[in-house]
Amino acid sequence: MSISIPLYQILAVLLVATLSVCYGDRDKAKDVYIVYMGSLPEGEYSPTSHHLNILNEVLGESAATNALVRSYSRSFNAFAARLSDEEQQRIASKKEVLSVFPSRKLQLQTTRSWDFMGLTETAKRNPNVESNVIIGVIDTGIWPESESFSDEGFGPPPKKWKGVCIGGNNFTCNNKLIGARVYTSGGNTTARDKVGHGSHTASTAAGNNVLDASFYGLAKGNARGGVPSARIAAYKVAEHLDNAEVYNILAAFDDAIADGVDIITISIGMGPTPLDSDSIAIGSFHAMWEGILTVQAAGNNGSRSSVFSVAPWLFSIAASSIDRKFISKVDLANGKTLVGNAVNSFTLNGTNFPLVYGKAASSNCSDDDARSCDESCLDRNLVEGKILVCDSETGWIAASSSGALGAITTFSHENVGPSGVPLPSSGLTPENYDVVKSFISSTENALGTILKSEAIVDTTAPLVAHFSSRGPNSIVADILKPDITAPGINILAAFSLDTSPSQSNVDKRSAKYNILSGTSMSCPHAAGAAAYVKTFHPNWSPSAIKSALMTTAWPMNATNEVDGEFAFGAGHINPVKALEPGLVYDASIDDYIKMLCNINISFFSRCPKDISGSAKDLNYPSMQALIESNNSFTVKFPRIVTNVGLANSTYESKVIKNSQIKVSVEPSTLSFETSGEKKSFIVTVSGKGLPASKMVSASLVWSDGTHNVRSPIVVYTN
Ligand SMILES: *[C@@H]1O[C@H](CO)[C@@H](O)[C@H](O)[C@H]1NC(C)=O
Ligand SMILES: *[C@@H]1O[C@H](CO)[C@@H](O)[C@H](O)[C@H]1NC(C)=O
Ligand SMILES: *[C@@H]1O[C@H](CO)[C@@H](O)[C@H](O)[C@H]1NC(C)=O
Ligand SMILES: *[C@@H]1O[C@H](CO)[C@@H](O)[C@H](O)[C@H]1NC(C)=O
Ligand SMILES: *[C@@H]1O[C@H](CO)[C@@H](O)[C@H](O)[C@H]1NC(C)=O
Ligand SMILES: *[C@@H]1O[C@H](CO)[C@@H](O)[C@H](O)[C@H]1NC(C)=O
Ligand SMILES: *[C@@H]1O[C@H](CO)[C@@H](O)[C@H](O)[C@H]1NC(C)=O
Ligand SMILES: *[C@@H]1O[C@H](CO)[C@@H](O)[C@H](O)[C@H]1NC(C)=O
Ligand SMILES: *[C@@H]1O[C@H](CO)[C@@H](O)[C@H](O)[C@H]1NC(C)=O
């Protein structure tokens, strides 16, 4: 997941047990495959019987029914079945089958954050329209009793709503939380969120304005979603943070589209996957077809080429800081105070507790293993009642399980430290950490205290989080991903009362609101922003909404981010500005199909023979091309903008240059006479040749004096 790496490590232990329960009695030689057949045919057609027929032909009648896991039949044509390798190959060779790929488990990757991005409580709103907007949240379920989802002041669901509330026992929907479906199996099926992730994302996108929310007094303020008057429908595809089954995710898309949601937010994914075996790309393609924008987390891997949200019809969101940062001070008995990062909600009872370095807390490990507080090294007798000092980011996990009173760890990231911790913790920069180690070695009896966190203003924000997955796009090389960045560090939002805020068994607390970090948290911010734009422009296509948000984004300062646009895409989301973008780069289903055919993917529909072009020809709000290293190059980006501003307006192009490339725009002036009018132009980028592994960026801005329509331009080599 996402949330933070530490939490994920704790969960990994629990998951092993869950998996064997689910599949212990099944045929082990067979795996679940998704058989994708494209759109539903027009007219009379029974998808499920067709699916069973296909299985009958390959498996025989008696085995077919048992093999079928899911039949998708509301929004697209596909099924999931338990098949051997040979059986799946026979099915793949059928002419009506477009692709077959294995199902697998994907990971799930206050709120000052809305004020920070300019969508304040007093920002202009369209409340009547907003209350007709439905956000579909594909996640771990939801905590229905949270104040964030109370329906006080809400009328009945919008008329267009075709969904249901089947959330299982002891789960009730209301006029705010209007729908719930569960796809996970085993034990008690309930849409209730047992891990907090789904409640957090849903409330960030569309939670009510809840006064005086905080996490043990931290981040105190009004917790609210981007569109507090909108409705929520929860689609539960995972019980835990890394068992979101692909066949369940597809089922959620199949239903959400047919139920009539307006925006889908999905903070789930795992590793870049070719489009024809990427369930989220497939589901969101059909959503886009029905006018629904799908917003997806970019991923929490943090390294280059790791962004897993790659399809151009997805809105792919990086995570960055807001201007609030949590520090947790460490007082040493020698009078020194060190400022560390952490979301530490604990207050130690007293001051001056013994400090013990991991190296000295082990009786049977090498110094190297012991220094970082390897769990198998720690000797409970040497740790209990003491503050453990560890050469690792996540030493607090072992500290808590071995009975320590607190943990001081080293953390080299500027704006993030330990969070979701089950005991008092602080994360110190390497320099400050060394001060603690020197103190310990200078005295027999080193004492110290970890103070509860306080929030301070962070003037460096927004900076992209170290964990936010970077481009380039490893599947569609000529499409820039992520698209944009949004707040994803230390976000306060609703949580589940069925788990502790740290999700550690040691932690006996429960919290209605919790602070989490991840692209899981930035994704629903962008979904809320997209819904907000939609309330003012109900007829805009998903591509137009995405374009409005991208071209009005705040420019990020690339001097502070070595990965530049590969880290933050078009920049930082600015919802209010996106209401009036001036021009939009729109794209229709046909444009996307043409692009897919250009990159030789014909699985969404058969491609025409006379296709020519490349992915960079797609009318995308950013421009990116992969070029060969050391060769001079000339790349053309044909684009069409639609005037969504005043009727008679003239836009001049301006290029924010980069000395290593030449950018020209033809024509350089666009004059519009009517609203809705389209004009085309071509951006030509040329250069003398770039070395390998190089990325160079510039931007194009169309300006009429009022609107500045900005697009990043990126060329790079492998
Ligand atoms: C329903 O679930 C809530 C939350 O887990 C619990 O507190 C309550 O006791 C449950 N009610 C029933 C009737 O099971
Ligand atoms: C399902 O929930 C009920 C009531 O909470 C409980 O008695 C029962 O043991 C649960 N069953 C399973 C399989 O967890
Ligand atoms: C990122 O992905 C790469 C490639 O799959 C993997 O080797 C690496 O461990 C991942 N890093 C993190 C922090 O998940
Ligand atoms: C705090 O420490 C004092 C002195 O050791 C003790 O009497 C008191 O019970 C402790 N309080 C809590 C809440 O643990
Ligand atoms: C160290 O000792 C502990 C407790 O005796 C034991 O559980 C652990 O496995 C040992 N670790 C190693 C690396 O030998
Ligand atoms: C970008 O950041 C650098 C270093 O912090 C600073 O010197 C520069 O002025 C910033 N540029 C802009 C445009 O803010
Ligand atoms: C697509 O396939 C055609 C024919 O096989 C080939 O000429 C072309 O280079 C391929 N294009 C890409 C982008 O792979
Ligand atoms: C590109 O040029 C550099 C410097 O001349 C050279 O070291 C490198 O091998 C060349 N790379 C390729 C792919 O030709
Ligand atoms: C736009 O300009 C044209 C030509 O000057 C004029 O006829 C038309 O009325 C103007 N439209 C608006 C909405 O101002």
UniProtKB/TrEMBL annotation:
UniProt keyword S-adenosyl-L-methionine present: no
**Record's InterPro entries?**
Peptidase_S8/S53_dom (IPR000209), Peptidase_S8/S53_dom_sf (IPR036852), Peptidase_S8_Ser-AS (IPR023828), Peptidase_S8_subtilisin-rel (IPR015500), Peptidases_S8_3 (IPR034197), S8pro/Inhibitor_I9 (IPR010259), S8pro/Inhibitor_I9_sf (IPR037045), SBT (IPR045051)
MF (Gene Ontology)? serine-type endopeptidase activity
Q: Where is the signal peptide?
A: 1-24
Q: Which GO terms describe its biological process?
A: proteolysis
- Active site positions, chain numbering: D139 (charge relay system), H197 (charge relay system), S520 (charge relay system)
Every Subtilisin-like protease fibronectin type-III domain range: 617-715
Record domain Inhibitor I9: where: 32-109
Principal cellular location given in the protein's record: secreted
* Entry protein name: Cucumisin
Give the source species. Answer: Quercus rubra (Northern red oak)
